[in-house]
Each structure stands twice: as C-alpha cells, then as structure tokens.
Design a protein that fits this description.
The protein contains 2 helices and 8 strands, in the order ββααββββββ. It is of the alpha+beta class. It has one domain. The strands form 3 sheets. A 4-stranded antiparallel beta sheet has the order 5-6-7-8, covered by helices on one side. A hairpin with a 4-residue loop joins β1 and β2. The radius of gyration is 36 Å and the shape is rod-shaped. The chain starts with a strand and ends with a strand.
C-alpha cells in the first residue's frame, strides 16, 4: 500500500489507497523466463548425472584391472620362488597367510576375487583369475590381459 497525501484548505488528511506501482513489475522475472531457467537447469543436471554414472563405472573398471595386475605380479613372484602357482588364494591374510599352497592377495574396497583355478594341478604352470565389483566381472590368465566378461 502506498500513501497518498490529500491536502485540503481546512484539513490535512492522509488517505490510504492501494494502487499498482508499474515500476516494481519491470524489476521482476516473468513466469516464462523462470520456467525456461528451470528447464535449462534440469537438462544440465541430467547430462551431469549421466556422465557421472559413466565415469563411476570407468573408475570401478580401473580398480578391477589394477587389482588383477597386482595379483598377477604376486602370482608371478610366487611362481618364481616356488616353481609353481599357488593352489589357493585368499584375501584374509590373518586366517589364511602365505604358505606353500596359498597366496594372500590384497583387494580394493568393493572388489572381490572370484574363481581362481590352476590348469594343471600336478605341474601348475597356468592360472585363471576372476575379480568382480557388483555386476562388473574381469578375468585374467597368466598369458592374457584383463578381459571384461
């Protein structure tokens, strides 16, 4: 509400009259402008979310490959020292420490070693090792690179 002064010769009175100030509307955004901005923000947020999910899967795949390469190096060292690959692997080094037949491997959070097989039990010269994080599974042998399954 704005105040309008009405001067009379005898009395000075103040009359309150509501009226619309057109200058205040010139400073505000229209509904269409606000909706356009909200739509643009929604589209940008959608692209960001999609790219984030894609990069998150790439990070998981990278940690899986890194764990496989680390395990391959430890298995190769075990083979050089013992002239055979271990028959079992574990990730709980307290319960199953390194021995003549077991190798304890470290794993990144969220990753789990799956199947580990030695192809020839009498003279184990090759192995197959799987690792997974949720539904993403990689497999590696002593003669191959990590392969997405």
């Amino acid at each position: 509400m704005n105040v309008i002064f009405n001067y009379d010769k005898k009395i000075k009175s103040i009359i309150y009259q509501p009226y619309i100030d057109l200058k205040s509307f010139a400073k505000a955004f229209t509904l269409v402008e606000v909706l356009v901005v909200i739509t643009v923000i929604g589209i940008v947020a959608t692209f960001y979310t999609v790219s984030y999910v894609g990069s998150n899967n790439k990070i998981i795949e990278t940690t899986l490959k890194s764990d496989l390469f680390g395990a391959a190096a430890q298995l190769k060292l075990f083979n050089m020292n013992n002239e055979h690959y271990p028959t079992t692997i574990s990730t709980d080094c307290d319960a199953n420490p390194d021995s003549e037949t077991n190798l304890c491997l470290t794993v990144s959070p969220g990753n789990e070693y799956g199947d580990y097989t030695v192809d020839d039990p009498s003279d184990p010269q090759s192995y197959t090792l799987r690792i997974n994080n949720g539904s993403i599974i990689y497999e590696m042998t002593n003669i191959s690179e990590p392969i997405l399954i």
